[in-house]
UniProtKB/TrEMBL annotation:
GO process annotations (BP): 'de novo' UMP biosynthetic process; purine nucleobase catabolic process
Binding-site residues for substrate, renumbered to this chain: H60, F61, R62, N92, H307
Protein name: Dihydroorotase
Residue stretches making up the Amidohydrolase-related domain: 50-388
Organism this protein belongs to: Halobaculum saliterrae
Length: 438
């Protein structure tokens, strides 16, 4: 099968015809120069934008062990509806992905995925690096320097050993950087007894301090330098952490919730806004946004971490950390393009070109001849409100409820339709996702 996209506006503003043959982009040519007779299907883009599919380098699809929160089918549907064509799953499942057998189990579960995927291997005291590195890993990580969901925080000696092993295997190490010794436990003790949206969740932000992140980033970078390892800092929430990574020549990511939400939103969110690292001050949020816009930040990734409403509707001490985000990342960034606060080429790089380069996935992240036909068709003139009930994650809620966003009309994964909202009813494709390390 072949599909011809005519008069498609690319992220850099060029208007092109794009011919997809099978699973690959076969031709990219000046508009009006490709023969429609060469294609089985014609998609008249009529000035709409054709973008490379987003790569979300940080998701938690919760299988095995927590499928009541999310599974590979629901998570990948949510990804496809948000223009994400590749996801990278993190290891804090049950069992944790710290052995070759656990990687094999997760790859089998991912056969339900509508989008392509990578599997990260994790590190605990019980990890088996020999069997782990025999498998087709995407990267090593998320390696936790402090406990989060799954209680996978590790000691300094084990972290150094793991980084050295990853360096020997020429594998990127993704680090969850928080130093628990710098947490303000007194702040958490001051939290009230409210639950859900009545809880004083700002105590969580005061507890897991910005200083704890910055110190852990610097420690991780120093260990990486000693071993010659490539360090990628996950979900940096502070300008200090971003700057430290940049100064050391490491890469970092920022999440949409740290980009668009701050402690000022916690009165409305309550414990639905509890995550690790936590939301920061509005001043820090603005500084993080500036670094995303100016090119200091390498990628945006969601840390998609769904929990049920019942689980989140607890006290600030008991509610699990994390929010969903895989379906709303690209739509929120495209809204910023509409508003003139982000450049479309910058968004393309943040969610597609840069993650493909950092993690060495050469077939992804670009609209170019020979690349995988991972494509997203969007109309920047068409917006709608984000509503949790309209999204496709199993958890059924979002911290961005009520915000305007630009959602995809069509998402292709290697030339296969994964999501189509061009008709009266949206439609999803089949589970054709493959391991990008195949």
């Amino acid at each position: 099968m072949s599909t011809l996209f005519t008069d498609a506006t690319l992220a850099d503003g060029r208007v092109r015809d794009v011919l997809v043959e099978g699973e690959t982009i076969a031709r990219v040519a000046d508009a009006g120069t490709l023969d429609p007779a060469d294609a089985h299907e014609i998609v008249d883009c009529d000035g709409r934008h054709l973008l490379p599919g987003a790569i979300d380098a940080h998701v938690h699809f919760r299988e095995p062990g927590f499928a009541h929160k999310e599974d590979w089918h629901t998570g990948s549907r949510s990804a496809a509806a948000g223009g994400v064509t590749t996801v990278v799953d993190q290891p804090n499942t049950d069992p944790p992905t710290v052995t070759g057998a656990a990687v094999d189990e997760k790859i089998d579960l991912a056969a339900k995925s509508l989008v392509d995927f990578g599997i990260n291997g994790g590190v605990t005291a019980d990890w088996d690096p020999d069997s782990l590195f025999e498998r087709p890993l995407f990267a090593l990580g998320e390696v936790f320097l402090a406990d989060s969901t799954g209680d996978m925080g590790i000691e300094a000696d084990l972290f150094a050993d793991a980084v050295a092993r990853a360096a020997a295997e020429d594998t990127v190490v993704t680090v969850h950087a928080e130093d628990a010794d710098l947490f303000d436990r007194a702040a958490l003790e001051r939290a009230g007894d409210g639950v859900g949206r009545d809880a004083d969740v700002d105590a969580w932000s005061a507890y897991r301090t910005a200083e704890a992140e910055a110190a852990a980033v610097e420690r991780a970078l120093a260990v990486g330098a000693d071993s010659g390892a490539a360090i990628h800092i996950a979900h940096t929430s502070t300008p200090e952490g971003i700057d430290a990574a940049g100064d050391a020549g490491a890469t970092c990511e920022v999440t949409p919730h740290h980009l668009f939400l701050s402690r000022a939103d916690l009165d409305d969110l309550g414990t639905f806004g509890r995550m690790n690292p936590p939301l920061r001050s509005e001043e820090r949020r603005k500084a993080v946004f500036e670094r995303v816009a100016d090119g200091t930040v390498d990628i945006v990734a969601t840390d998609h971490a769904p929990h049920t409403r019942a689980e989140k509707d607890a006290s600030v001490r008991d509610a699990p950390s994390g929010v969903p985000g895989v379906e709303t990342m690209l739509p929120l960034l495209l809204r910023e393009v509409r508003e003139g606060t982000l450049d479309l080429e910058r968004v393309r790089d943040l969610v597609a070109a840069n993650p493909a380069a950092i993690f060495d996935v050469p077939g992804k992240g670009r609209v170019a001849e020979g690349a995988d036909a991972d494509l997203v068709l969007v109309d920047l003139d068409s917006t709608r409100e984000i509503r949790g009930d309209d999204l496709h994650s199993k958890c059924g809620w979002t911290p961005f409820d009520g915000r305007e966003a630009v959602f995809p009309e069509l998402t292709l994964v290697r030339g296969h339709v994964a999501y189509d909202a061009r008709g009266d009813d949206e439609a999803f494709g089949d589970a054709i996702g493959e391991n990008v390390r195949r």
